[in-house]
C-alpha cells in the first residue's frame, strides 16, 4: 500500500496509463509516483470508441430536439461521468483517488469509502472563462457542472492545484476552506530514463557565451494563437533587424499560420515531433536553444515552461493565469499578457545583447534543471498526502518570474 495503508489511484478523463491523455500529465504523474512508491496504479477511464461516440451524439441530439439547451458539454454531464466511472468504482473502494479532472461521478462523491483528492491546473470557472469555453457548453449543463464541482470539492479530503491562481478560484468560486487546498507545481513531461540519458549526454555541457553568436529562441506548441506564436514572430521580426537572433518552432505546422508570418526570416520550422517515438530528438532540438518562449494569451500553467527549464533553458513567457508559477525566479523573464509586438521586440533585443543578466539567467536554468522534474513534484505531493512523513525538497527557490512590462 502506497499511502497510509491505502491503494492510491490516478484518474483522468481518459486512460491515465496513456501518455496522450491530458497532454501526458496523468501519465507522468503516475510513473513518477510509482517509482517513488506513492502511487499504485492509473485508472483506465477510457471514453474512446464507437459506443462513446453514440452516447455523445444521442445526448447532444436529445438536448437540441427537446429544446433543453444548445449542444456541448457532454463530458460534464451526470450520464457521462457515471458511465465513465462505473467499471472502476468497486476497485477504488477503500482507496485514495487523485483525480486530474474537476468532476467525479456523483455516486463516487457520495461514496465515503473512497478518499477523494484532486490534481488540477484550473477550476471549471477558469476553464469556461479564462479559456473562453463557456460559449461552447450548454448553459444549463455548465451551471449544473459548477454545482457538482463544488460538491466534489466539499466531499474531498483535499484539493491539490498547480498554482496559487487556481487555488484562489477554488476558494473564491467554490467557497472551499483555503486550508484544504494545496499548491504543487507539476513537473516536465519527460520520461525519467530518457531524461537521465539526455542528462548524461548533454546536460553537463555548458552553453557557449553569447558573444559572437545569435541568441537561440525556441517555441513548442500546436495552439499557436492561444500560445502567442503570432506575436512572438512579429516581435522577433522587429528585433532581428537590430539584434542577432534565431527562432526554432516545434509542433506547429508552418502552413497553419497566416502567410505573412510564414515568410519571416531567421525562423526554423521543425513541425510536429512525436515525443513518444522520437523523444530524444525532441529533447535535443529544445536543449540546443537558449530561451524557451511561450507568450500565451491564456494559460492555466504551461508544462512547456517546465520542459524548457528541465532542459536547461531560460524562459520568456506572459504573466497570465498560473503561468508565472511554472517558471523559476531569476531563470525567466515575464511580460504583460497584453504586450505589444514592439514590447516583445524590446525584450528580445535586451536578451540578445549578451549582458551578464542574460548569461546568468541561462546559467541558473542549467544549474536548476532537475528541480523542474516530476521527482520534485512527487516529493511535495507526498508531503500533502502523508503529512506525518519526513520530507526534503531540493528546490528552495521561488518560482515567480522577473516582470518586464509591455510596451
Overall geometry: globular
Structural class of the secondary structure composition? alpha/beta
List the total number of helices: 16
What can be said about the biggest beta sheet? 7 strands, parallel
Please give the radius of gyration in angstroms: 22 Å
Strand content: 5-15%
Distance from N terminus to C terminus (CA atoms, Å) equals: 54 Å
Enumerate the spans where pLDDT stays under 50 for 5 or more consecutive residues: 393-407
Task: Describe, in plain words, how this protein is organized in 3D.
The strands form three sheets. A seven-stranded parallel sheet has the order 11-10-9-12-13-14-15, sandwiched between helices. A six-stranded parallel sheet has the order 3-1-5-6-7-8, sandwiched between helices. Helices cover 39% and strands 15% of the residues. It has helices at residues 25-35, 50-65, 78-85, 89-92, 106-110, 124-129, 139-155, 164-174, 192-203, 229-240, 259-262, 279-287, 303-310, 341-352, 356-367, 374-385; strands spanning 8-11, 14-15, 41-42, 44-45, 96-99, 115-120, 158-161, 181-183, 215-220, 245-250, 267-271, 291-294, 314-318, 332-335, 402-404. 45% of the residues are buried. Helix 5 links the parallel strand 5 (96-99) and strand 6. By secondary structure, it is α/β, with parallel strands linked by helices. The chain is globular.
SSE layout and pairing:
Elements: E1 8-11, E2 14-15, H1 25-35, E3 41-42, E4 44-45, H2 50-65, H3 78-85, H4 89-92, E5 96-99, H5 106-110, E6 115-120, H6 124-129, H7 139-155, E7 158-161, H8 164-174, E8 181-183, H9 192-203, E9 215-220, H10 229-240, E10 245-250, H11 259-262, E11 267-271, H12 279-287, E12 291-294, H13 303-310, E13 314-318, E14 332-335, H14 341-352, H15 356-367, H16 374-385, E15 402-404
Parallel strand pairs: 1-3, 1-5, 5-6, 6-7, 7-8, 9-10, 9-12, 10-11, 12-13, 13-14, 14-15
Antiparallel strand pairs: 2-4
Helix pairs in contact: 1-16, 9-12, 10-14
Amino acid at each position: 500500500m502506497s499511502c497510509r495503508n491505502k491503494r492510491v489511484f490516478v484518474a483522468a478523463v481518459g486512460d491515465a496509463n496513456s501518455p496522450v491523455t491530458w497532454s501526458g500529465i496523468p501519465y507522468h504523474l503516475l510513473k513518477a509516483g510509482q517509482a517513488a512508491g506513492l502511487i499504485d496504479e492509473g485508472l483506465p477511464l477510457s471514453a474512446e470508441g464507437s459506443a462513446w461516440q453514440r452516447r455523445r451524439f444521442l445526448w447532444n441530439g436529445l438536448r437540441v430536439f427537446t429544446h433543453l439547451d444548445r449542444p456541448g458539454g457532454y463530458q460534464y454531464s451526470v450520464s457521462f461521468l457515471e458511465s465513465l466511472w462505473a467499471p472502476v468504482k468497486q476497485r477504488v473502494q477503500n482507496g485514495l483517488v487523485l483525480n486530474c479532472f474537476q468532476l467525479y461521478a456523483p455516486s463516487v462523491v457520495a461514496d465515503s469509502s473512497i478518499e477523494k483528492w484532486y490534481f488540477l491546473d484550473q477550476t471549471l470557472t477558469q476553464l469556461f472563462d479564462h479559456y473562453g469555453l463557456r460559449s461552447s457548453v450548454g448553459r444549463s449543463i455548465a451551471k449544473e457542472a459548477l454545482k457538482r464541482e463544488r460538491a466534489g470539492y466539499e466531499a474531498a479530503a483535499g484539493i491539490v492545484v498547480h498554482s496559487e491562481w487556481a487555488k484562489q478560484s477554488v476558494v473564491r468560486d467554490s467557497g472551499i476552506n483555503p486550508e484544504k487546498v494545496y499548491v504543487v507545481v507539476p513537473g516536465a513531461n519527460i520520461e525519467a530514463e530518457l531524461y537521465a540519458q539526455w542528462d548524461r549526454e548533454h546536460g553537463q555541457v555548458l552553453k557557449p557565451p553569447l558573444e559572437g553568436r545569435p541568441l537561440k529562441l525556441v517555441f513548442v506548441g500546436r495552439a499557436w494563437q492561444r500560445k502567442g506564436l503570432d506575436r512572438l514572430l512579429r516581435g522577433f521580426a522587429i528585433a532581428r533587424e537590430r539584434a542577432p537572433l534565431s527562432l526554432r518552432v516545434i509542433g506547429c505546422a508552418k502552413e497553419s499560420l497566416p502567410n505573412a508570418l510564414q515568410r519571416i526570416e531567421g525562423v526554423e520550422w521543425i513541425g510536429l515531433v512525436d515525443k513518444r517515438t522520437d523523444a530524444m530528438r525532441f529533447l535535443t532540438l529544445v536543449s540546443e536553444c537558449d530561451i524557451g518562449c511561450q507568450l500565451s494569451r491564456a494559460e492555466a500553467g504551461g508544462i512547456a515552461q517546465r520542459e524548457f527549464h528541465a532542459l536547461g533553458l531560460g524562459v520568456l513567457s506572459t504573466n497570465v493565469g498560473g503561468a508565472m508559477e511554472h517558471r523559476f525566479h531569476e531563470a525567466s523573464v515575464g511580460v504583460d499578457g497584453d504586450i505589444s509586438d514592439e514590447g516583445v521586440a524590446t525584450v528580445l533585443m535586451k536578451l540578445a545583447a549578451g549582458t551578464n543578466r542574460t548569461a546568468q539567467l541561462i546559467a541558473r536554468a542549467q544549474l536548476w534543471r532537475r528541480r523542474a522534474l516530476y521527482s520534485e513534484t512527487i516529493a511535495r505531493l507526498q508531503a500533502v498526502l502523508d503529512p506525518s512523513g519526513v520530507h526534503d525538497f531540493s528546490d528552495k527557490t521561488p518560482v515567480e518570474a522577473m516582470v518586464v512590462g509591455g510596451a
